[in-house]
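Quick start: read one record
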Amino acid sequence: MVKKSATQNAYEKIKNMIINQELLPGQPIVEVNFANKFNMSRTPIRAAIQLLQEDGLVELIPNKGTFVKSFTKNDIILCFEMVEALEGMATYLAAEKHKSGNLIKRDLNNLKKLVKKMDEALEVSNLNDWSKSDEEFHNEITKLCGNHYIKDEYVRLRTQLNCVLWFITPMYIDKRASNQEHHMILEAILEKNPDKARQVAQSHRNRVRKELMHLLH
């Protein structure tokens, strides 16, 4: 197992604190505080903060300092529009790879297992397991698509959305409809039908986006 660098360790800890709302929007990010908290020097903390800034999770305000980024309603809308486009293309490319014989059985089995996990989690109303499997399912497709630009940007945007929607999304969206759509996405990939895969993936995300926009109004 590869040991994480101090920078990566600090980055993940601070990122998780932001996602879990332990650090709130607008809260200052002070190097020395985290150095003391994590028992590290300030150098890896500084590097971690730079990575978080690149992710769009913190922002540098001149002459004031670095703060946890506050996302406006418009920011959320714009992120969701981009996620919808990325998921559609990623799913198209994943189906195209399968059509070309470039997806192995293990890749497809992973998707099947995640869809099954979501079905099982919904049956017992396990919101946490459902949410984790939902995110893993979409992340897995972006990995399988073979385009690292799509994968990296998708992860960055999903992380930003998780910071503000980590509780709202799994609680209030129609999870039964989502599960049905996940089955349709998987089916389109298995059928090696790129156009259908893109269409059902974008329709799925479009529905979720509209549900959330209704909640945010």
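The chain has two domains: 6-68, 73-216.
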